[in-house]
């Protein structure tokens, strides 16, 4: 297997983050145009308008668990631990994050968002376990 295949899910995750940045910006501009927010309130970002709140919260969320994903992908590649299983787990993580982000910025229903988060949580956890086993010479 080509070890650089592990980077495609990472690229998609980065694209998701950029898309959420665009969404936050668009929703903030819409809130300003609708008169529900003022540009000055974004200076300290303490009062996010309702129109952009879910998107802003999701953007913050993209720098929590995904940080562990980025780190483990780079570590897997650097230690030559990339295989079909790790690439599949990476894709599972990213698909779960896309679903989670979509739910977070639309309905924000925890009932549906939580399972998507849990899938990603375990996928990235398994990547770290695989890395540890590989480094220990057990995988």
Strand tally is: 0
Mean pLDDT reading: 95
Structural class: mainly alpha
What is the radius of gyration computed over CA atoms, rounded to a whole number of angstroms? Answer: 18 Å
Termini separation comes to: 16 Å
Question: What is the CATH top level name?
Answer: Mainly Alpha
Taking pLDDT < 50 over at least 5 consecutive residues as the criterion, the unreliable ranges are none
Shape: elongated
The share of residues in helices is over 70%
Describe this structure in words.
There is one protein chain. The protein is an all-alpha fold and 139 residues long. It has a single domain, classed as Four Helix Bundle (Hemerythrin (Met), subunit A), CATH 1.20.120. It is 73% helix and 0% strand. It has five helices and no strands. The protein has helices at 7-33, 50-61, 65-78, 84-105, 110-135.
Structure in a nutshell:
With 139 residues, this protein is mainly alpha-helical. The chain contains five helices and no strands.
Helices, strands, pairings?
Layout: H1 7-33, H2 50-61, H3 65-78, H4 84-105, H5 110-135
């Amino acid at each position: 297997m080509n070890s650089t295949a592990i980077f495609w899910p990472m690229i998609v995750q980065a694209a998701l983050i950029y898309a959420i940045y665009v969404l936050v910006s668009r929703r903030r501009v819409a809130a300003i145009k609708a008169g529900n927010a003022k540009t000055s309130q974004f200076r300290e970002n303490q009062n996010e308008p309702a129109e952009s709140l879910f998107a802003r919260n999701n953007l913050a969320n993209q720098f929590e668990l995904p940080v562990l994903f980025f780190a483990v992908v780079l570590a897997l590649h650097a230690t030559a631990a990339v295989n079909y299983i790790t690439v599949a787990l990476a894709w599972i993580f990213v698909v779960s994050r896309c679903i989670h982000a979509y739910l977070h910025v639309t309905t924000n229903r925890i009932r549906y968002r939580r399972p998507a988060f849990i899938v990603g949580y375990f996928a990235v956890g398994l990547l770290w376990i695989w890395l540890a086993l590989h480094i220990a010479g057990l995988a």
